[in-house]
Specification:
single chain; 139 residues; mainly beta; 1 helix
Length: 139
Amino acid sequence: MVKKLLLAIAILSLICACAVPRAKQDSNPAYSTHQFTNHELDISWKAESTDKGVRIDGTLRNVRPDLPYTSLQLTAKLLDESGKEIGKGTKNVDGRFTGSEPFTIDIPMVRLETVKRVNFSYSYGTTEDFHRDDFTSVP
């Protein structure tokens, strides 16, 4: 009886461990290369200050090439110290997205010194569902 109970506990523990979504994000300093990875997308980018604001250059990659995404949208919001949005830019990927694609988001700004964080949000559709998620990083 005890063996069956321990086996049931072990199986439930393994099932729960597999059901938790995993996300990996670097802790690099501001204005260096960054990367965010989870079970849906791999996003790598680098933000740069320009004379007109902030430019974010990077690459989007679908980590599940067997599941094409449609209407993929990546939005970057610049945040100040209090978390208030001070700038925003969006990149749309039309059609079926199965591989990787470079992106550039230009966000016009007047006072670059107020930018403390970047909040990325993405959304996409599949043949069966619609997904949306976000994460925050330094610029």
